[in-house]
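Before we proceed, please read the two lines closing this message. Tell me what the token row says about the fold.
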Amino acid sequence: MRIAALAIYSLAGDRRVVRFRPGLNIVTGWSGTGKSSLLDIAEFCLGRTHPSYPVGVLTEAVAWFAAELEHDGVVITIARPAPGSTFAGVHNAMIQFGASVDDVSFAELAANTDARNIRAELTRLLGIPANQVRPGTLGRPPLAATASQALLFCFQGQGEIANKALLFHRADDEEIEDAIRTTLPYFVGAVDVDTIALRQELDDRRRDLRRAEARLERARLGRSREVDGASALLTEAAILGLTDPGREYRGQDALAELVRVRDLNLDVPEAAEATPTDAVLGPLRERQRELTGQLAALEHRLAVLTRASAERAAYGDELDEQRRRLAAIGLIPDDPGGDEQPPCPLCGQSLNHDHAQIDAIRRDLSELNAQLGDLRGSQPAAADRRGLLEDAIVQLRTEQRVVTSDIDAAVRSSSEVAQSGDLRSRRAFLQGRLTEFLVSLPVEEDAVSTLEHEVRRLERETAELNELLNPSSFQERTESLLRVISEDVTTWARTLGLGYSEHGIHIDPTDLTVVADTRQGPVDLDRMGSAANIMGYHVTAHLALHKWFIEQERPVPSFIMLDQPSQVFFPDDVRRPEDEEISDEDRERVTALYALIRDIVAGLDDRLQVIVLDHANLNLDWFQEAVVSNWRHGEALVPEEWLDATEDRP
């Protein structure tokens, strides 16, 4: 997808078209002629709600904006009505397939869609499938990779191209910075469509698991009350001589015994005497002591295992950080095998002989990777052991609570029998309580076991998906691909003679910046010194990304607009008389910058469209051939007669 033309329509219906070709396009001109506004117009036409061009000529003289796109041989025109000087959000839009801006007259401009649908249509055209790269959380909506994020790699505004604090377009907005960071792995190809689908499935499984766990907790709470009640009633029945005190009843057996006691004829001889209190309390108190000891032992084991897991995790994090730093500067080769002698990991030069120190470094790095693999491999097993211990502790605590309740019931029942002396009345009263208890039980007796089975199934499926979608593997793959992309950044930076280019350069996917890996430590973009360095790394990083996007057929538009890259030098061979002279060295550096862009575009067979908006106007044949508009001596984006017409309006 490239930009074939940008157009503006006057209030009177006149049309001004700026056309672009594949490859390198240069719009040159004096300050204030509207060069930078072309970037704002392009972004607005491609779905941005709030335009970013300044209040002035455009707000006074323009009624509609339009962009003509070319995608897979199809021409698409998108037009947007101007919002006026208030710059209120504009949602209306028009889209026509198979029509260029030359085919769309002012009278035919009419909204047939909105900005949201424009963004959705661009997403479809780019081939980005429905996805969710980040699930929604409390206070943060879900995020999908769409054309909106892809276009953030296609613009470098005048205030951005030499900005040391940010590398990407509009990254000074925290939400947009987060969107770039989150979707970058997808756009470089570290996360594929199948992986996105798996991540969505994992999110669904986690949600289902949370819901199932909540239902199970509620069911267990109800069953816990049932178990506690049934056990306490059986203990009272034992004290009253209605059931065997030496037998332990569980589950359905306990319910069956309660029914039997409820239906007993209290006048038969077998229920004539009460059971001595000690016969009931003795076994219960002994079991209570056993449970206390078992709980203490399990809780100690769990504490030891948790502490060990935390220490392993901290050690693993440190190992991973060291591995990441070493990998970022190329000390960990992507392919350690093969017959070719790998380059020196310190200086990048070829090694034609054995070097003991280099071999030692590689052995250490190999061991580091192996240790990381062992740590990651042990994490699931440790988690399983913790889960088993936690389940056992829950079961023991439940039984401990039941035993304590049984002891209380036995003491209470024994005391009541001793005080009343009327054994038959106490038994009859218990039968009434049994009737009330049994009636209150839920109909589905196997609800808890069904929910437990569902939770175990969801836990298993979630664990399997987690294993497939290891977050650290995403990060590693993203960093690996960006190291490959950054090789071009390093090469081109050396071509331009940028500071720190003698070191390895890489794009940092976490901090979204360019980093030089020096022997004194990493140097971020904001510490790279001159504006020429900052601008150079902005340009080379974006060109390297777009080269990768094109070669790997990633769903990103194949154009980039660069606004005022030469502002750090201010060259202008055809300049106003008051413009200051610049040094030959600066002119050479500007020439080198444009020559590099030209060569990169040519190397991609013009599949990358670069639109440069600049006041540089080098007196070189190849440069002048790339100029599509030269706005000087009265020429500008908005013709003077349009402004005259606005002044004549009442």
About this structure: The two ends are 43 Å apart (CA to CA).
